[in-house]
Amino acid sequence: MKFIMENKFHNKTGIVILAAGSSSRLGRPKQLLQYNQSTLLKNTISEALKVPDSFLIVITGSNSKIIEKELLSFDVTICFNEDWETGMASSIVKGLNELLHLNPNCEQCIFAVCDQPFVTSFIFENLINEYHKTGKGITASAYSETVGTPVLFHKKYFKELQDLKGQEGAKKLIKKYFEDTASIPFEKGSIDIDTEEDYNKLIF
C-alpha cells in the first residue's frame, strides 16, 4: 500500500496554498471573499488544479471549519495548522511536512497565497518551466520591482524552509540565495487583498 501511495505522487510538483491567516486588517475571512463567481481561495485552488503533474495541499487555520466546508468538492489535501497564530512560517512548515508525508521523494514545491486574485495556472506552469530551463534552486514571481509568491523551491531548500520561525516567509530564502533564484513575470502579482479598500478596488 505504501508503494501505491508514493507512486501516486511520483515526479509531481507539490503546490501548497497558504490560507491560514485571520485577515485581521480586513475584519472578515479574505479566503471567502466573493470573486470571479467564486471566492478568492476557490479561484486560487481552481487555477492550481489545472497544472499538469501536480498535487495540491491547502493549509487552513483561522476560521478553518467554515473554510474547509467550502472546499469539500475539491480534490485537494486539506491540512489544519494549529499554530497558525504564530505566523506565516508555521503554515509553510506544516505544508512542507504534509507534502513530504505524501511524497518523501518530492523534488520541488510551489508556495502560493490565497489573496492574489490574478494568479493563474499559466503562472504556476511558467514557474515549473523556468525551473527546468534554468536549473536554479528557486524560481519566484516578479512584480513591482520585487520577487515573491507564487515561488518554487527545489528540495535542497526544504530543510531551511522547515526551520523558518514566526513571521518569516519565503522571501528570507530568496534574499539569502538570490544568486540561485530565477524569476518569471507576474504583472498583477502585486495586487493582493488586505483591506476592504483593496477588495473594493478589485470588484468595482
Order of strands, main sheet, comes to 5-4-1-6-8-7-9
**Number of separate structural domains:** 1
The helix/strand series, from N terminus to C terminus, equals HEEEHEHEHEHEEHHEH
Relevant CATH superfamily: Spore Coat Polysaccharide Biosynthesis Protein SpsA, Chain A
Broad shape: globular
CATH architecture: Alpha-Beta Complex
Low-confidence stretches: 1-6
State the CATH class: Alpha Beta
Count of helical regions: 8
Instruction: Compute the separation of the termini in Å.
Output: 51 Å
According to DSSP, the number of beta strands is 9
Radius of gyration: 16 Å
Pfam families: NTP_transf_3 (PF12804)
GO molecular function: nucleotidyltransferase activity
Characteristic terms for this protein:
alpha/beta; globular; Spore Coat Polysaccharide Biosynthesis Protein SpsA, Chain A; seven-stranded mixed sheet; 8 helices; 204 residues; two-stranded antiparallel ribbon; nucleotidyltransferase activity; disordered N terminus
Describe the structure.
The chain has 204 residues and is an alpha/beta fold. Helix content is 36%, strand content 24%. The chain has eight helices and nine strands. It has helices spanning 2-8, 40-49, 64-70, 88-102, 121-134, 158-162, 170-176, 196-203, and strands at residues 13-19, 34-35, 38-39, 54-60, 77-80, 108-113, 138-143, 146-154, 181-185. A seven-stranded mixed beta sheet has the order 5-4-1-6-8-7-9, with helices on both faces. A two-stranded antiparallel ribbon has the order 2-3. Helix 3 (64-70) links the parallel strand 4 and strand 5 (77-80).
